[in-house]
Amino acid sequence: MEYKDYYKILGVARDATQDQIKQAYRKVARKYHPDVSKEANAEAKFKDIGEAYEVLKDPEKRAAYDKFGANWQEGQHFEPPPNWDAGFEFRGTGYTGADASGFSDFFESLFGHGQTGRQRTHVFRMKGEDQHAKIVIPLADAYRGARQTITLTRPVIDGDGRVSTSPHTLHVVIPKGIIEGQRIRLEGQGLPGHGGGPAGDLYLEIVFQEDPVFHAEKRDIHLTLPVTPWEATLGATLTVPTLGGHVQVKIPPNSQGGKKLRLKGKGLCSASHQGDQIVTLQIVLPEPRTEEQRRLYRTMAEQMPFNPRSGLER
Amino acid sequence: MIEQRIYIQGMVLNEEMRCSLADLCSLCGVNAELIHDMIEEGIITPEGPSMREWCFTSVAVKRVQVAMRLQRDLRVNLPGCALALDLLDELEELRRLSRRR
User: Fold this and answer.
1) In terms of domains, do A15 and A108 share one?
2) Which domain holds residue A25?
3) Could you tell me where the beta strands, DSSP code E, fall in chain A?
4) To the nearest whole angstrom, how far is the Cα of A87 from the nearest Cα of chain B?
């Protein structure tokens, strides 16, 4: 078990006043709230912050925690000394109402765990909490539909009311045509209920893996297609990748760079919504490597009077 | 022995999904009064001509759930939730645009 520096987590000095702790908590809680924050580890950070505040906001618990002093470093291996909490009155009922199911082993070793003894006899029948997680899938899985096995860590409460975490593995169908930001609700796969109540639900939010070729915008798939000046000017039929395999695409003559071609139905399609693939042309100039090749450009300059900047003249 | 894997097919909260007021309440674990307050505050907008025929989109489900968490975790009141949700939408749109560039 690792020592947790609750002062460091909230970003306050060890001699901070209760008001300063409250203010610091509110500030970091807003910053790392999983619905607000885009930090990759927001969920874990938010839990740590809640745990730190649970201890520091309570003068008694804070005093007990302070007994460890500054000798401990964040992350250092830690075992609480025997009878360390003698003289304090929170053992076994260390919670003051916060949802503590996600608190760390460190917290539990000091302040006990949520549902013990007397408390348990008062548990109402209640649905378990919903759980929310993100799953990262490749675009191809959304295009075709797929099956995925995911493992989540979740708190488990045993018969004695002890809380521990255990991995929870699920096999899930990813339906064809799902798009980024959409959620899959798995009924009864959330946290267990209380007092015989049903389990909560699990919501899986879809996030697309970065793809080197394709880029999804809702149902449409975007692709930048590099073409030569003569393909763009004279027109051509080119082989273009799509999520469903290669297709032949006709480039009309006199196409400029940035022109968009729409391949109907080649995006993310569900039962009732169609997505397209949008191909954006990017004209790539070949670098002349020989004198003869340079001459070709000079010939063009001589024989094709053209001012691309005429629009800038006033 | 071959392990038999059972794949769970969940409910997809997509553009097609619509739910009744009762469904919305049970999905989000809230009572109808709170949903009324959220509608008044502009957090969600029901579809349908009358209360009996109200239906809600997956976006409404998500907004109610986020509002509940903001209330619980950050003590944001309903007008604050409405503001935060609109700003979060705007932020998401700006992030999407900046990713494209």
Assistant:
1) yes
2) 1-114
3) 131-137, 146-157, 163-174, 183-186, 202-208, 215-217, 220-227, 236-242, 245-251, 260-263, 277-283
4) 32
B99 three-state secondary structure: helix
Which ipTM score applies to this complex? 0.87
Are A182 and A164 contacting, i.e. CB atoms less than 8 angstroms apart? Answer: no
Q: What is the secondary structure of A152-202 as a DSSP string?
A: EEEEEE-TT--EEEEEEEEEEEE-TT--TT-EEEETT-SSPPBTTPPP--E
Query: What distance in Å separates residue A122's CA from the closest CA in chain B?
Result: 21
Contact in structure between A237 and A226 (CB atoms under 8 Å): no
B3 touches chain A (CB under 8 A): no
Cβ B10–A184 below 8 Å, yes or no?
Answer: yes
Q: Find, in chain B, the residue whose alpha carbon is nearest to that of A274.
A: B15
d(CA B81, CA A13): 31
Phi, psi dihedrals of residue B25, rounded to the nearest 5°: -60, -45
In a domain, B1, yes or no: no
Q: Please indicate whether, in this complex, the C-beta atoms of A204 and B65 are within 8 angstroms of each other.
A: no
Taken in order B17, B18, B19, B24, the sign of the CA dihedral is positive
Q: Which domain holds residue B46?
A: 18-100
Report the distance separating Cα A83 and Cα A64, nearest Å.
11
Candidates A72, A107, A71; CA nearest to A90 is A107
Number of domains in chain A: 3
**Helix intervals (H) in A67-138:** 105-111, 117-120
Residue-by-residue pLDDT tens, chain A, 314 positions: 678 889 999 999 988 999 999 999 999 998 889 888 877 788 888 888 998 998 899 888 888 888 765 566 666 666 666 665 555 555 444 444 455 556 777 777 677 654 444 444 456 788 888 888 889 999 999 999 999 998 887 766 666 666 677 788 899 999 999 999 999 999 999 888 888 889 999 999 999 999 999 999 999 999 999 999 999 999 999 999 999 999 999 999 999 999 999 999 999 998 889 999 999 999 999 999 999 999 999 999 999 988 899 889 77
- Does residue B76 fall inside a structural domain? yes
pTM of the model: 0.76
A141 φ, ψ to 5°? -65, -35
Last residue of a domain, one of A114, A138, A170: A114
- Decide the pairing of beta strands A277-283 and B11-13: unpaired
H/E stretch holding B12 reads strand B11-13
Q: How far apart are CA A152 and CA A164, in angstroms?
A: 14
